[in-house]
Each structure stands twice: as C-alpha cells, then as structure tokens.
Design brief:
5 helices; 9 strands; Cyclic Phosphodiesterase, Chain: A; alpha+beta; four-stranded antiparallel beta sheet; 189 residues
C-alpha cells in the first residue's frame, strides 16, 4: 500500500507575529484548551488530506504556478475570539484576519488549480482567514460555571506581509501534530 501524506497549503507567519500570538496562552493559563505550539501557527489556505507522493508533486506544481501570478500583500490580524464564531460550545480560540481581495484571489486561484491537479473537493463555506491558537477541551469547558467562563473577544492589530505560500505536511505524534514544510513558493514582488 502506497504511503500517504496529510497535506495542506498554508501561509506561515513571521517569527515576531508567532511570538506575539503565542503569548495569549500565558494570558489564560487555566483555560481548558490545548494550545498550539508556537512554530505550528499558520493560516490554512486549503486542507487536502491524505495524498500520494504523485499527488503531492501535483500540489507543489499547482502552488508554484499560483504563487508566480500573485504579488505579496499585507494581512491584518484584528481579533482574538472563540471560533468558529457563534458556535457553542466553542471548538477553538482563533486569531481572525481581515478578508482582503488579494487573499481571496490567491485562495480562489489555488482552489481552481488544485481542482484541476488532484481529487480535491473544496469546502462549501466562506473562507475566514484565521489562526488556531488553541483547541478547546469541550467537556472541561462545559464543566466551568457559565458566569466564570472567560470572555475571549479582544481586538488586536498585527499586520504582516504575506510573501509566500507553503505546502505543509502534518504528522500526528504523541505530543501533538508536527508540521513540516515540503515546499515554499515566493509570491512575485
């Protein structure tokens, strides 16, 4: 049986942005959640699932072609909140970003290229650029008296330049997932 790889296409964050976002785990140390490792913080553009080596190669080619068509752009992370919004009990703590025409165009082109190259079924929901800061432990969260549950809704202003997209592999290990960059493709300047 051919080995498969759990693949997604992402925007990695600059080290200073990762550091600042990771510090929120210290703000709510008793919150019932599994916090994302600092080095794993990213924005998923498309999750592709378990792919063969050949399919991975096709994804890399598709991502390279898309990156060559798009210039770098700024992205503003503007809010820390429960995610998805209005879902109770919450599943995550997210850093939410502004929707921009550059990001939407990049993601749409990526989706179209991937549909052509691999058996890929896009999600039928509106894309909201976000970073998963933590996964809420549902049974522990439900055990907190409703009046004592922290309100997580903070405005932030973290702006960074998106200069590349990465093809990433996720491997589940004992301590949690480990993400490895397979290829990185620079956006045109």
């Amino acid at each position: 049986m051919e080995k498969r790889h759990r693949i997604f296409v992402a925007i990695n964050l600059p080290a200073d942005v990762k550091k600042e976002l990771f510090e929120y785990s210290e703000k709510w140390p008793d919150f019932p959640a599994k916090w994302t490792e600092k080095d794993n913080l990213h924005i998923t553009l498309e999750f592709l699932g378990n792919l063969t080596e050949e399919e991975m190669g096709e994804v890399c080619l598709a991502a390279k072609g898309v990156a060559e068509k798009h210039g770098s752009f700024s992205l503003n992370l503007n809010q820390i909140l429960y995610g998805p919004p209005k879902k109770m009990p919450p599943k995550f703590i997210w850093a939410l970003g502004d929707k921009s025409k550059e990001l939407s165009a990049l993601r749409q082109d990526l989706e179209n290229a991937l549909i052509e190259k691999v058996r890929f079924v896009p999600e039928n929901r509106v894309f909201a650029p976000h970073i998963t800061l933590a996964r809420v432990i549902a049974f522990a969260w439900k055990g907190i008296d409703p009046e004592e549950r922290p309100e997580i809704n903070e405005n932030i202003d973290l702006i960074f330049t998106v200069e590349s997209i990465e093809i990433m592999e996720s491997e589940m290990r004992k301590g949690g997932p480990v993400y490895t960059t397979i290829e990185s493709h620079q956006l045109k300047n």
